[in-house]
Amino acid sequence: MPAKRRNDFDDVPAKKIKHAKLLPIPVLPYAPVRQDERQHYLKLLHKEYAKGIDDNSIAISRAVEEEYEICKKSKSRMEYTNVVKKSMYKLMKARKIGDDRRREKAVNDQRDVPTTSTAQRKISPSPHPSLPASSASSASSASLPAPSTPLPAPPTPPPSLYSQLSKLCVPKELLIKHKFVMDLPEVVKPDDIEECIRCHTKFLRSEQFDTKNHRTTVCKFHPGKMLLETNSNIIGGGQRRVRNREYSNRYYTCCHELQGESEGCKELPSHVFKPEDPGILHWFKRFRTIEGLRKTLDIRDDEKSQIERKRRIRAIGIDCEMCFTNLGFELMKVSAIDFDTMKPILDNLVIPDGEIVVDLNSQVSGVYSVPKEGDPGTLTFDEVMVRLAELTDRDTIVIGHGLENDLNVLRLIYPRIVDTAVLFSENQIDPMRKDPLKKLAWKYLSKNIQQSEHDPMEDAEIPVEIVKRVLMNANLRKQRVSR
Ligand SMILES: [Zn+2]
Ligand SMILES: [Zn+2]
């Protein structure tokens, strides 16, 4: 029976493969079918095997062996062709059943990792478990609540892809290449002179941000991006459709003005600066490793609660929104979710430390007024630190997109980073040319995100969803190969 013979080949180990070429083995003393016909059917049989086996040499070997067995046992040409066709049909059917099973498993896996829609999200307005919502936001850094709150009993985590997540952690050297601060820097005192990152005017920080005598100035700029387009697509560009590049112009997406037409369509009473040098960032507000922070805040889990906590938050997705103040680029909103459950663990506005808030970056951040003490769900920077120190430690895998920006405003150093911008951007050579999250969301999840301002909770979720999708796809491929 051909089916019996085929099963015999299913366990042929790769090492024993002898038939590298797709040629029929001679049948002695004579074969019931001509050699050229055998070659034809062997090709068809191999085609079926190759659809289910990724390693072509194994597919060839199995096809050659099977065709030989069929030919050896067939009494006539008709018997030979019938058995070969039946064999091909069986392979096709087996492949279809395998595909269905895999599809079913993938669906079940996805069910195990539910995603949370914006509408379903619920998060306690109390910024700290030990504080009532009303008093929490008024807690200053000097009176930080004792971080010894007993943790609630952990829910049993659903099966997750966590075990494979560590494979995606980006090596430290690569993170450094991508401007991540991975070690505590030496303090570098900055010059007083700064260049506005918007209008490129040079200004004196001490003069501009004199808190007693705040001087206003005029900073004109375009908040949008500059794009290259043909004349016909620009407002007032005329009806003529000019495709020649020489007639192309650069225009701003914010106001459709051409480059150089005006100094800017937006005006602010102050210039803004954004230090990049880790030492200068450290001068404005110090960096801490997550372990250093936990030690400073004296967060010590006893053995039992440590295990419970780890079972709860083993990996997080995080995203921050920032604003410009007299202290540079500061945290204004933080959103984080638990990798296993996709439930929000942080979703709070944050009061900037700088007294003078110059620009809320509303077009991106979606924040339109300066977060103040007493606003529900609003935290101070130090309260955010307490929450993160309680929820995470050096073993926590932190997932995000362009995380160096988020971690630099948090001034936190985490050793285990999964960054979708580093891992999945098309350009893997130039760290300056990373794909935006919007592009990856479309590519991996077919989701159209960030249509206007950013939803930081969505920006925290999407990288986690991308990572899960990549891990699930890798699992499917592995199953296919091992068949
Ligand atoms: Zn503009
Ligand atoms: Zn400016």
UniProtKB/TrEMBL annotation:
Keywords per UniProt: Exonuclease, Hydrolase, Nuclease, Nucleus
Entry's Gene Ontology molecular function annotations: exonuclease activity; nucleic acid binding
InterPro entries to which the protein is assigned, alphabetical: REXO1-like_dom, REXO1/3/4-like, Ribonucl_H, RNaseH-like_sf, RNaseH_sf
SUPFAM superfamilies, per database record: Ribonuclease H-like
Domain Exonuclease, residue spans: 314-476
Sequence ranges of Low complexity compositional bias: 131-146
Composition-biased stretches (Basic and acidic residues): 96-112
Compositional bias per record (Polar residues), positions renumbered to this chain: 113-123
Disordered: region residues: 94-158
GO annotations of cellular component type: nucleus
Compositional bias (Pro residues): 147-158
Chief location of this protein within or outside the cell: nucleus
Compartments in which it is found: Nucleus
Function: 3' to 5' exoribonuclease required for proper 3' end maturation of MRP RNA and of the U5L snRNA.
Family the entry assigns: Belongs to the REXO1/REXO3 family.
Name of the protein described by the UniProt record: RNA exonuclease 3
Species of origin: Brettanomyces naardenensis (Yeast)
